[in-house]
Specification:
By secondary structure, the chain is of the alpha/beta class. It is built from seven helices and five strands, in the order αβββαβααααβα. The protein is globular.
């Protein structure tokens, strides 16, 4: 049952990206890579075009203690920030209120990265002990990634499905 329910998340992720693409792409923007599976697919980002790299998060935030969602959001933000490219960087979420509250909060980076050794080591190699909380890192890097809501451009039936999730 748990495995079958996990596949629903994969379907929502793929469908959400596919339905959002026509509204996101600019004139003359060409998709170079598209990863429709949620999670690690061996590619750095969900979307890469000739003009942007992007990650999509279709989680419906509740506003409480959502450490797993926060950890994943930070990981995606960090990899977008640190990716060397001249392309625009985007992090699309369902709403920005809760993600921004997290990014501007005081949660310790050691807590956020505690279960991800690869991320923790990469972060420490790059920044040492300069940052201890999420808001410190976000304050210095927020202009490098466009944090945008995706829910306003998704068809109504997908918005309703996400709100029931």
């Amino acid at each position: 049952m748990k495995q079958a329910l996990g596949q629903i998340g994969e379907i929502v992720h793929a469908l959400g990206i596919l339905l959002a693409l026509p509204s996101l792409l600019q004139e003359n923007e060409v998709v170079e890579h598209l990863s429709l599976a949620a999670g690690n697919t061996g590619r750095l980002f969900d979307l890469e075009t000739n003009q942007r790299v992007a990650e999509f998060k279709f989680n419906q935030w509740q506003g409480g203690a959502e450490s797993i969602r926060q950890n994943q959001l930070f990981k995606d933000f960090y990899y977008l920030v640190e990716h060397r490219t001249t392309k625009e960087k985007y992090l699309y979420t369902t709403g920005t209120k809760h993600p921004l509250r997290f990014f501007q909060g005081r949660r310790a980076l050691s807590s956020i990265m505690s279960n991800n050794k690869k991320l923790r080591e990469a972060f420490r190699r790059r920044h040492g002990e300069k940052y201890t909380t999420i808001h410190q890192y976000y304050a210095d890097h927020q202009t490098l990634v466009h944090l945008e809501t995706i829910d306003t451009i998704l068809p109504i039936f997908l918005r309703e499905a996400l709100s029931e999730e």
